[in-house]
């Protein structure tokens, strides 16, 4: 039996992003984001209710300042007392997990979406994704990019503007493009 493009995407296989079912889901998320990002001030409990209604899992105390952007939402899981500042982007065609007590600066991009390296597969309009995991009590600096397949360990720090292309060990501090370990001062 042939699998749908959504089933392929959820399994981590290559899929066609222009599939009507996926296009409709992304459009629904876009409409939800328009309401979430609307300029009218909403009380924190109403924003949390909206997040819980659309994202995969949102624990107590989560704050995401608008504007916020994502592809689907249902692949995002966020632990308690986690904070995402203005203008964060999460491309969540694969699972994205953010641990509790993590602080994410403005303009951070967490990208689970990926594209084949083979030009023929790209010409065929195929794409894929690799899960991203950010551990507990991490600090991701403003404008950082977390690329597909990366795991950031618990208690790690990612410097502002860094491009994280490989896993970051627990407790490490990384910075730069590509992000590399740096000495950490108090």
In short:
This protein is α/β, with parallel strands linked by helices.
Beta-strand content estimate: 25-35%
How is the main sheet built? 7 strands, mixed
What is the rounded Rg? Answer: 17 Å
> What is the name of the CATH topology?
UDP N-Acetylglucosamine Acyltransferase, domain 1
Low-confidence stretches: none
- Element-by-element helix/strand order: HEHHEEEEEEEEEEHEEEEEEEEE
Sheet with most strands: strand arrangement? 3-6-9-14-17-19-20
Structural class based on helices, strands and sheet pairing: alpha/beta
Shape: globular
Average pLDDT for all residues: 95
Can you identify the CATH class?
Answer: Mainly Beta
DSSP strand count: 20
> In total, how many domains does the architecture comprise?
1
Number of helices: 4
Let me know the CATH homologous superfamily.
Hexapeptide repeat proteins
The CATH architecture is 3 Solenoid
Distance between the termini: 57 Å
The proportion of residues forming helix, as a percent range, comes to: 10-25%
Keywords: Acyltransferase, Nodulation, Repeat, Transferase
InterPro entries: Hexapep, Hexapep_transf_CS, Hexapeptide_acetyltransf, Mac_dom, Trimer_LpxA-like_sf
GO molecular function, one term: O-acyltransferase activity
Organism: Methylobacterium nodulans (strain LMG 21967 / CNCM I-2342 / ORS 2060)
Write the layout of secondary structure elements.
Elements: H1 5-10, E1 15-16, H2 20-36, H3 44-54, E2 57-58, E3 63-64, E4 68-70, E5 76-78, E6 83-84, E7 88-91, E8 96-98, E9 103-104, E10 109-111, E11 113-114, H4 119-123, E12 126-129, E13 132-134, E14 139-140, E15 145-146, E16 151-152, E17 157-158, E18 163-164, E19 173-175, E20 180-181
Parallel strand pairs: 2-5, 3-6, 4-7, 5-8, 6-9, 7-10, 8-13, 9-14, 10-15, 13-16, 14-17, 15-18, 17-19
Antiparallel strand pairs: 1-12, 11-12, 19-20
């Amino acid at each position: 039996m042939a699998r749908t493009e959504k089933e392929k995407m959820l399994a981590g296989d290559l899929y066609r992003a222009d599939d009507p079912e996926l296009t409709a889901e992304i459009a629904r998320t876009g409409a939800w984001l328009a309401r979430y990002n609307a300029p009218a001030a909403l009380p924190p409990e109403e924003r949390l209710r909206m997040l819980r209604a659309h994202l995969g899992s949102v624990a107590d105390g989560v704050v995401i300042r608008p504007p916020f952007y994502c592809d689907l939402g249902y692949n995002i899981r966020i632990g308690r007392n986690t904070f995402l500042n203005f203008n964060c982007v999460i491309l969540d065609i694969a699972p994205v997990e953010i641990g509790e007590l993590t602080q994410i600066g403005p303009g951070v991009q967490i990208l689970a979406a990926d594209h084949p390296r083979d030009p023929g597969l790209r010409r065929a309009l195929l794409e894929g994704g690799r899960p991203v995991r950010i551990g507990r009590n991490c600090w991701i600096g403003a404008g950082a990019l977390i690329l597909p397949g990366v795991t950031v360990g618990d208690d790690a720090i990612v410097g502002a503007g860094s491009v994280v292309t490989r896993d970051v060990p627990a407790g490490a501090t990384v910075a730069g493009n590509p992000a590399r370990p740096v000495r950490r001062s108090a």
